[in-house]
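Sat 14:20. Reprocessing the chain from the morning session after the first attempt stalled halfway. Input below, unchanged.
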Amino acid sequence: MKTHSFAKRLRAEATLAEQRLWFQLRNRRFEGLKFRRQFPVGPYIVDFICLEQRLVIEVDGSQHSQPQGQQQDEARTAYLNDEGFRVIRVWNNEVLGRMDGVLAFIRLSLQ
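Finished this time. Tokens:
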């Protein structure tokens, strides 16, 4: 499946945490910045990206706490860092239960 069509499918099948964070980020609601969701970067599709700030936000579920998930995340983060992006990761449960804290963390990452 082509990356762009797969990204489109991921947007349609977003997790509840991704949907809630997208509501906060979309339409320049957050700090006046333009974010995109499920955006292709090289071989990867990132959850959220702000191109002007070179910031990637990944919303992680429990599979990311498994050894294989951690290895994949490390490789992905290394690739994105090499491409000039800063990568921050937040857990699904943080987005669902502590949105103010997640937004504060993102805000700090922009400084």
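The chain has one domain: 3-109.
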